[in-house]
Input
Amino acid sequence: MGRKSKKKGKAGARSNAAKSQPSATSKGKGAPPPGASCWICLDEEPDDAGQPLVRDCSCRGTSAGFAHLSCLIQYAEQKCAMEDQNQYKVDPFWMLPFMDCPNCKQKYQSNLVIEMATACVDFVEREQPDCLWRRMGALHFKLGALAIQRESLLLDDCEKVADEFFSIVEETKSNPSMFSLLPYVRGVEADVFMCLGNLRLDRGDEESGRRAAEYFEKAKELKVDFGLDLAPSTCDTRIAEAKALYEGKEVDLSARLKNIRLTYHSIVEKYGEGSLEAVNTGMEVATVLRDMRCVVEAERFLDKLAADSRRVLGPEHKTTEAVVSGLRTLRVRAVSVHHGSGRKAFQALRYDGSGKKLVVRGPIHTPRDAGKGSTIEVDTPVIPAMGTPVICHGLKSTPELNGKVGDVRGAGEGTAKGRILVHLEGRKKPVLVKPENLRIAFDLPELTVDESG
Output
């Protein structure tokens, strides 16, 4: 198909995003196959700036959803230009053409969402500079697009965007006509503080912990003063985590799990299972469960989350791939075996035909070592690593526990009589079990009615 001339109207004052580097999907796995064309201009070739077709959404198939970045921006600008531009009437959906693919109805992701967010900011500053709530909304969108990448290198960029946002907030304080929009302004402002706090907390150093606590405190103050939706208890939990970081104390993971679960269920109720928001929050739930050594529950949860993400977002969506990768890592079974001069961690692969020997590979020093090293057979029983899923067998005094699945919560010589502390599904209190009465659970059996309850 021959080249078509790109029309240059108002959108011809092209944003910086259209001139930036190609999205990650312009090459490699997401590169368009032969014959794919831009669904907007129908051209198969790169655009006038030499940028190739991109696709960073949930569109599936060999050609659906591919477009030029410049075409996507022009399409979004034209849609937004037709919206009601009332400066004092908030429309939370006005940015959707920049945020969501109109074909699959799912959000753009990765580099493409950053480019679209940057274009959104450029568009509002160029076409609607007097509409303060839209300028704030666009900057909030860009901050979220950067933050969701969860890359510490982008923290400085996030804080620069936040500084622009806060400068507009100051403008609203001196504008009497904006008083009716205060709930919206303060709600977004609280969300920006929470976002910055989470990013600082992710960085993990002492100074970031202090900065995170300050951000969470400001968010809490806004939530309390204006009676905003998110409970102040969420801020309290995050403040405690930030303080634990710079004071060198243990983080209360149970409180963190309670709050993130409440957030997850709220998001599912609002956006549905499998939505990008639900899957991203769900991964945080699984991470906390893993850190609490609740690996069986984490694995079951991630397994369902992966199925939801495949169904809604698609198997090739980067979020789906992240869930599947996390699930794969979680399914690595680690054990401690005698090797050389002492005990070392190995990845358990399977039992041999007799069931008396365990095939292991390693040693492993970090999760990245899984799948590496030499493969050997070791005598059973072995000592499962903390969090490793196990199945009880051969118990005579408590035969009702045979076949029950749980995860290891304590092991080694310090445990009573060398036994292993196991938390079994469906039971509130953990039990002590001899190593010879445990087998590694490589595949989790389906939950029974009493266990799921």
Notes: The two ends are 60 Å apart (CA to CA). The first strand starts at residue 333 and ends at 339. The first helix runs from residue 69 to 81.
